[in-house]
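Input record, target 12 of the design panel.
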């Protein structure tokens, strides 16, 4: 009998791409609006400037006024920073749910111990306790394991291949959900730095324009342009640094979950093959 294409035997819960896309489409404009409001109403408040002078020649009285002197590029970079924070929180929640209710390493050890003892029901019970993406994939494989034990028309190699394929298909359904919006964080790594450099260039252009003006340059105006350049550089680099850290944290977590699935899946396949090789 031909080996028909198999499907994951247990429905695997996953975040819809449309819902994730809607979250991103709402988050980005909201972060931009919030950043602009912070720039205008908080950083630009007269209390942050000496004498309440918020004009180009005003002197900052604290760090808030100093950041405001960075110019129109500042709210752009601030919006990028807010996006990194919001998407990082969202990824922490999603990946945390995917990991399940307990330690993934402990879960894998318990499932492997049950498999070594030949107790498939106990391994399935551990999946019910753990929940999450890893447990869903493993439970799907265990259900396929039980189905293959009762399948009389396939040999051991075909049954083993069917279990392995079920694991691969279930994993393929779960992994994209974990990687949603990571591309946005990765993109912000470059955009943050480039936008900071743009602000630096704009500030330096203003500074050199002041130097090139007829007569003695205005020290206050010159320092304002230099301050604008340095502030944008600092904000851009800081945003990119945070983005890199968060991206690496999430990819590391996803790799750990993928390894747990691969390790447990391999144990399931090997257990089935070794226990049925003489049948």
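The sequence produced for target 12 reads:
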């Amino acid at each position: 009998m031909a080996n028909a294409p198999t499907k994951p035997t247990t429905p695997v819960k996953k975040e819809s791409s449309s819902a994730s896309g809607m979250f991103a489409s709402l988050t980005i404009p909201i972060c931009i609006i919030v950043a602009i409001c912070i720039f205008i109403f908080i950083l630009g408040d007269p209390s942050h400037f000496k004498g309440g002078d918020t004009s180009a020649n005003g002197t900052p009285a604290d760090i808030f006024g100093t950041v405001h002197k960075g110019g129109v590029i500042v709210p752009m970079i601030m919006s990028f920073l807010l996006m990194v924070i919001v998407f990082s929180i969202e990824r922490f929640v999603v990946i945390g749910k995917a990991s399940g209710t307990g330690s993934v390493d402990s879960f894998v050890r318990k499932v492997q111990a049950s498999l070594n003892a030949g107790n498939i029901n106990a391994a399935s019970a551990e999946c019910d306790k753990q929940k999450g993406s890893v447990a869903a994939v493993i439970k799907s494989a265990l259900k396929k394991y039980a189905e293959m034990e009762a399948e009389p028309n396939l040999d051991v190699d075909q049954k083993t291949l069917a279990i392995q394929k079920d694991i691969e298909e279930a994993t393929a359904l779960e992994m994209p959900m974990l990687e949603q919006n990571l591309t946005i964080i990765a993109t912000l790594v470059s955009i943050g730095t480039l936008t900071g450099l743009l602000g630096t260039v704009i500030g330096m252009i203003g500074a050199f324009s002041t130097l090139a003006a007829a007569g003695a340059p205005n020290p206050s105006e010159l320092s304002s342009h230099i301050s604008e350049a340095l502030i944008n550089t600092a904000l851009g680099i800081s945003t990119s640094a945070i983005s890199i850290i968060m991206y690496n944290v999430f990819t590391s977590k996803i790799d750990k979950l993928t390894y747990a699935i691969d390790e447990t899946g391999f144990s399931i396949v090997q257990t089935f093959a070794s226990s049925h090789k003489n049948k």
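The mean pLDDT is 85.
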